[in-house]
Amino acid sequence: MDAIRIRCGPPLCGRVRISGAKNAALPILCATLLSDGPSRLRNVPALRDIETTAALLRFLGRTVTVETPEVNVAAGSDVRPEAPYELVKQMRASVLVLGPLVARFGRAKVSLPGGCAIGTRPIDQHLKGLEAMGCTIQLDRGYVLAEGPAGGGRLRGAEVCFDLPTVTGTENLMMAASLAKGRTTLVNCAREPEVEELARVLNKMGAEVNGAGTDVIHVVGAERGELAPFDHAIIPDRIEAGTYMVAAAATGGDVLLESARLEDLEALVSKLRQAGAEIAAEGENVRVRRTAPLRPVNATTAPHPGFPTDMQAQFMVLMCLAQGESVISETIFENRFMHVPELHRMGARIALRGHTAIVHGVPRLRGASVMATDLRASASLVIAGLVAEGETEVRRVYHLDRGYERIEAKLGALGANIERVKGADA
Ligand code: EPZ
Hints:
binds ligand EPZ, four-stranded mixed sheet, 31% helix, 15 helices, UDP-n-acetylglucosamine1-carboxyvinyl-transferase, Chain, alpha/beta, elongated
């Protein structure tokens, strides 16, 4: 397994280009199942999750060419509406093929994703919505067996109220509703920018989706049995952008993020400004710098437009260096503090009380060998390595490769002293 070795260096300075949004690319690639025509997705990041999704689509019978930043998908052999455990266990977002498959082909057999490091990650809301649309759902030996009405017929529009906002749940049902008969109303939806981006693509494909980005989405199913193909360039990755913002603030640097959308990160930007960072839009770009001492700031994660759970670990590292006490609460996932024991090894002072971390700032962190456990925790450890005295080695960086394109090249170009160590100890 690879590791990333970081030595404390100068403040980050320069320009970094933000890649396309992973969490927009994944549902949109699954939406290609709603059409047989050749679809093209542009500004796609070169990430392991993109390769995993391509492998899944090929398994389902699609022809997929991944030449990032471009991915082309078209019908291939007959569709085999089955997503096996071997692929789904690598990436939970594989569950996003469920809605398109059962809406287009009348049936689907998709492995339950299983849990992951940050939580149990149930999909009950996805299944509840599909049942409301006439699907028969059976759970059999770790698989979801879904069948359209009357043994594989067309889904029908329904009113579905989510018990809680779920990003992929909203996306799955938007895609299913696009080919269902009649109108569907989805209530208590996730409002993430990636949900809006999927809706844009579905409408480009001839669907009729209104309200994405709000908590109520209306969909009128297309009369014909499939949608048209699309050609689309996806939005930049707001979590990658937020991660580089935190890295710039942590190192006291001055970084221009090319192709970043300030409007997608208002909650994070507000907290970073309270902490002492100066953040300003410059056309299509965003400049982040920090010269003032870091101030402690409390943060509680919430569904968009609240403070993103995917930025909680990175922000915590920043608070480890602030002059005072910060309280950070995680309300979305049940086990998203695994970066804390690793930060303790680097001299951070963090006390955990259930889903709340009380962070006492320290003057310096100290470099150490640390273990990546999940995607965003890995990013927080890299940021910690940028500011810690001495050398930090982050192991099991395959987690990092799922969501950050060429992170060591991008940070190196900003002046970081960083290298990838191939085949390091696990
Ligand atoms: C999406 O995951 C993102 N992944 C996650 O990003 C992100 O952390 C998460 O949304 C929250 O913003 C993708 O978009 C591919 P949820 P998702 O369904 O859709 C509970 C990353 O780092 N829930 O919005 O799986 C669930 O347990 C990843 O890029 C149910 O109870 O998250 C959680 O507590 C990590 N039943 C909460 O809802 C369900 O049926 C929010 O989960 C579905 C979800």
